[in-house]
């Protein structure tokens, strides 16, 4: 186990989530699956308790803890994309698997975990500051999934 690992709480389907992330995102995989050694509140001996996985190289543990806690936008994965095809791929994979669209490049997967699918052209425009950042920001505010062509046009001042 790494020194620092993100632990994500799931109801009872951490293994399903981990396999989905491993299929969709590069440098992602499912590692060890640990089963409960005895009955516990909300589960039985032999149930999947934790799943080790990585998402884009970030180590995570999925904990099947029941429906006590819910994910919120206070935590999200931000996935940097290089083009519209990549942006569409991640966005469509999450939404098409029972997820929900939100605003400004945010969406939620079917487990309630938030994702920011963020083209690099947007973060680069924001880093420039001034009028470039303002135009890019204002264009983004009207979007759900980020439209790179519209961000590029805003950067140019079109």
Task: Please describe what this structure looks like.
By secondary structure, this protein is α/β, with parallel strands linked by helices. The protein folds into two domains: 69 residues, Roll (2,3-Dihydroxybiphenyl 1,2-Dioxygenase, domain 1); 89 residues, Roll (2,3-Dihydroxybiphenyl 1,2-Dioxygenase, domain 1), CATH 3.10.180.10. Helix content is 34%, strand content 28%. The chain has five helices and eight strands, in the order βαββββαβββααα. The strands form two sheets. The protein has a four-stranded mixed sheet with strand order 1-4-3-2. Strands 5-8-7-6 form a four-stranded mixed sheet. A hairpin with a 2-residue loop joins strand 3 and strand 4. The longest helix is centred in the middle third of the chain and has 13 residues. It is elongated, with a radius of gyration of 18 Å. The chain starts with 5 loop residues before the first strand and ends with a helix. The mean pLDDT is 96.
Topology record:
Layout: E1 6-10, H1 14-24, E2 29-35, E3 48-55, E4 58-64, E5 76-81, H2 84-96, E6 100-101, E7 106-108, E8 114-119, H3 120-128, H4 130-140, H5 148-156
Parallel strand pairs: 1-4, 5-8
Antiparallel strand pairs: 2-3, 3-4, 6-7, 7-8
């Amino acid at each position: 186990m790494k020194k620092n690992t993100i632990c994500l709480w799931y109801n009872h389907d951490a293994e399903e989530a981990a396999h989905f992330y491993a299929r969709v995102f590069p440098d992602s995989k499912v590692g060890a699956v640990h089963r409960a050694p005895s009955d516990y509140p909300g589960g039985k001996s032999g149930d999947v308790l934790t799943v080790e996985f990585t998402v884009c190289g970030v180590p995570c543990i999925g904990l099947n803890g029941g429906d006590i806690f819910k994910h919120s936008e206070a935590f999200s994965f931000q996935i940097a994309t290089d083009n519209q095809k990549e942006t569409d791929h991640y966005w469509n994979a999450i939404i098409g698997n029972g997820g929900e669209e939100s605003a400004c490049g945010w969406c939620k997967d079917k487990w309630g975990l938030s994702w920011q699918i963020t083209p690099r052209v947007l973060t680069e425009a924001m880093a420039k500051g001034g009028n470039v950042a303002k135009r890019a920001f204002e264009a983004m505010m009207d979007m759900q999934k980020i439209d790179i062509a519209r961000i590029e046009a805003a950067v140019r001042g079109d």
